[in-house]
TrEMBL record:
SUPFAM superfamilies: PLP-dependent transferases. InterPro entries: Aminotransferase_I/II_large, PyrdxlP-dep_Trfase, PyrdxlP-dep_Trfase_major, PyrdxlP-dep_Trfase_small. This is Aminotransferase class I/classII large domain-containing protein. One of its GO terms (molecular function) is 2-aminoadipate transaminase activity. Coiled coil: none annotated. Residues 4-424 form the Aminotransferase class I/classII large domain.
Amino acid sequence: MVVINLSRGWPNPALLPAAALASASATVLASPSIWQPALQYGPDEGFQPLREHVAHWLTEFYQPRSPISPDRICITGGASQNLACILQVFSDPVYTRNVWVVAPTYHLAGRIFDDAGFAGRLRAVPLDAAGLDLAYLREELIAAEFKASRELNLTPEYKPKRPWRKIYKHVIYATPTFSNPSTLTMSLSDREQLVRLAREFDALIITDDVYDFLQWPAEPAAQETQPEHAQLPRIVDIDGYLEGGPSDEWGNVISNGSFSKLIGAGMRTGWAEGMEKTVYGLSQTGSSRSGGAPSQFSASMVAQLFPTRVLQKHIKDVLQPAYAARYKRMMSAINEHLIPLGVTPTAPRGTAGGYFIWLQLPTPLRATELASLALREHDVEVAAGNMFRVQGDPATEKNDFDNGMRLCIAWEDEDQLEEGVRRLGCAILQVLQKR
């Protein structure tokens, strides 16, 4: 049998707008007024037409209380590259006490935090169907401040002062909407409380807002009309208005966006949004000052997708219907093959989205053992829950997800999604019969 990969979180090639990108590339290379600046280093803040298009597009989708200015937008080399840049500018490997990670979390972010000097200082903040454990986060923030005071860790030691830089005492990392891997969406109340905590404890919240545009009605019988606007304000939007707005010119949130899930990860193009001073500071990362915008040519291509609304149409007419169909096909298979065995999928209310479905396994199943068996004997690859634990956090009870499992709806074709779930059911039954 051919291995069915329900672990890989990549877009299916059939859903990528290759023809639109070919046309965009031809437009860029046929126009000296575009290709000449596009093939140069570019301004630190990124390709200006794309900054303007993204600002208008985000305003249209999120409908914040005030229109988003292009000065709040910095073009990046994608969400992963930009996460590293944010840490370079706004954190210090000693003065910044901890990185607080909403868990389970995107498993490859840990290496980025390690590279920034935070190995061993990542701490999990659980998010489940009941919400974010804000009481636990507050207690741990207080403890971290007490420890810093006792150790006289009162001023940044390793990062020199710069007019474009602010060093935060804490970093909080989250994917608030359709989280990878749990697919949970943080409630409005939790988003607001998180902003309040960030202001109180001088924390920078970094949100990966990369799945927001991929949304659809969760109920199988719901109308096929796709939602056109975000269901909740982003945390960066909340920071803009909550209790009069940010406490200073830096704010406490950076929204990290990417085109990877929409038009192709290989484009290596994304955007960041925050306060104008924060965005300018981000553009002053050493690598951007040396090389200019990190995705100058790709950004010039992406910019061509906006004037005729090619991108918006691709999301509405291709991506949303396709991923909705895949989601419903996989959920139908889960209902048939896994729920009778005691497996419980994450059940979003009203609106589903993103790339994943998170499963809770019945006792005594452990995901690590099950994933190994499923691949070895049933030719289906799935992601065991502890792949998404926060690396190095000693609080095991807050950071053990081996009763969970992530399935991806994006990579395989629809028929393979259903067959993969059936094979996983066979693996679960095999384990249960041995118990």
